[in-house]
Amino acid sequence: MTSSSGASRRQVLAVAAAAATAPLLAGAPAEAKPKQPKTWDLTVLGTSDTHGNVYNWDYYKDAEFDDSKHNDVGVAKLATLVNQIRAERKGRATLVLDAGDTIQGTPLATYYAKQEPITSTGETHPMANAMNVLKYDAVTLGNHEFNYGLPLLATWIEQLGFPALAANAINAKTGKPAFLPYVIKEVRLGGHGAPKLRVGILGLTNPGVAIWDKANVEGRLVFADMVATAAKWVPEMRRRGADVVIVSAHGGDSGTSSYGPELPNENPTALIAEQVPGIDAILFGHAHNEVPEKFVTNLKTGKAVLTSEPSKWGQRLTRMDFTLTREKGCWKVVDSSATTLNTNTVVEDPAVLAAVRGQHAKTVEYVNRVVAQSSVELSAAESRYKDTPILDFINHVQTEVVTAALAGGAYAGLPVLSIAAPFSRTAVFPQGDVRIRDVAGLYVYDNTLEAVVLTGAEVKAYLEYSAKYFVTVPVGAPVDPETISDPAVPDYNYDVFSGVDYDIDIAKPVGQRITRLVLAGTDTPVAADAQFVVAVNNYRRSGGGNFPGIVKTQVYNAQQEIRQLLIDWAQAKGVIDPADFFVPNWKLVREGVPVF
Asked: Which residues contact 498 (CB under 8 A, 6 or more apart)?
């Protein structure tokens, strides 16, 4: 009875109170709007795959960089955009990250790794000079950071005024991270007295390093799966107080690899976003694509994870913007977005230019040295689909070096074949003076020369695999050189052989295209059990491109850079004459009829 009468009394009081206030509320809306929670904002700027570009300069053409879309390149351009955004935000939290592939890719970068290596001179690397001026907050190690060996990488890292991250690069002896896995940056969300935010930045490098730079890392580093590594470290970062977690990953988002299943996924960015809870955004690189903004739903939490990739060479800057609130003492991202900004809209930052001016000038002087005279103009424009002298130049030098090295040894009696890829569509040796930049423009990668023994059957299988580069064009259909190749296969993953004669029938299905394979200058078919020494670059020999049969023990490996061998040959000869090396030995056909 007591509780019942108490409840009745409360109801009466409530009704009376409502009646008493009714006149006061008569003109008010039925429901007051809830108070909006206060919000703050964070901006994260991202670069990737700058590949040794500081100035907006094409060292191969000795001119300002320009392409068909009028892109610009270089850290100096990126710095101008970054400084504009910092000024616009007037001290509000702004972080700048890079997703890797920084110290390789231009003659500028090569010069300070090979001609005057920073490990010998103690000079600061141009990419450290440029990035220190820009004041990055962190950089992730890309696969190309390992190209010049671990001592040079360690020297470069020491020269940086900010951390270099690679959580999945493991010391092979200790099983512990070989580099800093992550950092947690404390930033103020505004001016004086504004609350602090702790931003965790996790760096992930590419497992393909184990193949591509095997000589530099084997026995020293192991590269763990990027997804599993993120799953290990993200909860740890959260436990250590990270309010927001950004992953900086050197891997694309296609979910596929250019190599086989023996290594963890090369391009797992979308998989990381899907499978690892607790990530707010991923800045990624490696694939050289422009992905302004892409959301990936995490399968465990249903949360949309923001991802962005800023193209290559400093052509774009990613801008990520986050809106945050505090709920019960915890930060929460309530909105996020991203875009990419084009560096061709701004001038170069003078402070970055000044920091690298002397090194840039020294590189320009070096690449303009004349090494030989060419009797005629040689162009790489048609090398993908026609046998050209300029690609034969590469194969001739490689064959000559390997033949001389094996003379008098166990393999001296075997024919030497050579493999080269059309790395450049624009390389030209002009008639007359040929400079270092002309040769470097033909062979743009820092590959070294190796050799292995292949059977005739393995040579044929290799050629069949390479021939998948071409789309199928039926007999009678028009052939357009612009569309003759499969866009999914990059030019650097198509190889031509010297030392055997062969036809590629592009009217036939993939796997059945090598319709003629004979010993050089004969009609004698290559026997399946015949043996050949094959000169090949280290990238391909160690599994790059996933070509069959080529990953085997080298019979030659003197760690000589192919680009330098080409320069040395030209300097020694003094004259580049196709009569010395051009041997037409392959062609595209349809039913035996040459396409070109």
From this structure: 392, 395, 396, 399, 417, 418, 420, 583, 585
Three-class SS of residue 127?
helix
Separation CA 421–CA 496 (nearest Å)? 6
Q: Is 173 exposed, middle or buried (0-12, 13-18, 19+ CB in 10 A)?
A: exposed
Q: Where does the pLDDT of residue 558 fall: very low under 50, low under 70, confident under 90, or very high at 90 and above?
A: confident
Q: How many CA atoms lie within 13 A of 42 on its CB side?
A: 29
Closest CA to 309 of 248, 258, 233: 248
Tell me which residue of 180, 188, 182, 185 sits closest to 198, measured CA to CA: 185
* Beta-bridge mates of residue 575: 373
Q: What is the pLDDT confidence band of residue 258, given thresholds at 50, 70 and 90?
A: confident
Structure tokens at 404: 């001389």
Q: How far apart are CA 91 and CA 184, in angstroms?
A: 19
- Range with lowest mean pLDDT among 3-17, 116-130, 210-224, 578-592: 3-17
pLDDT at 183 over 60: yes
DSSP 312-381: STTSEEEEEEEEEEEETTEEEEEEEEEEEEEGGGSPPPHHHHHHHHHHHHHHHHHHT-EEEEESS-EE-T
3-class DSSP assignment, residue 64? strand
Report which of 76, 50, 49 is spatially closest to residue 133, judged by C-alpha positions.
76
Give per-residue burial for 222-238: e unless 16+ CB within 10 Å, then b: bbbbbbebbebbbeebe
CB 329 within 8 A of CB 68: no
Token pair recorded at residue 352: 């970055």
Question: Strand runs (DSSP E) across 375-527, as ranges?
Answer: 378-379, 416-420, 428-429, 432-435, 448-455, 496-498, 500-505, 514-519
Does the pLDDT at position 292 exceed 70? yes
- In 3D space, the residue among 285, 275, 273, 269 whose CA is nearest the CA of residue 101 turns out to be 285
Distance CA 4, CA 12 (A): 13
Dihedral (CA of 128, 130, 135, 138) sign: negative
When the pLDDT of each residue in the chain is averaged and rounded to a whole number, the result is: 93
pTM of the model: 0.84
**47 vs 101: CA distance, rounded Å:** 10
Confidence of residue 212 (pLDDT cuts 50, 70, 90): confident
For 91-118, give one letter per residue: b (16+ CB within 10 A) or e: ebbbbbbbbbbbbbbbbbbbbbbeeebb
Q: Which residues contact 353 (CB under 8 A, 6 or more apart)?
A: 54, 55, 76
Asked whether the predicted pLDDT for residue 23 surpasses 50, the reply is no
**If you average pLDDT over residues 473-480, what whole number do you get?**
97
Model confidence pLDDT, tens digit, residues 358-405: 999 999 999 999 999 999 999 999 999 999 999 999 999 999 999 999
CA 480 to chain centre: 29
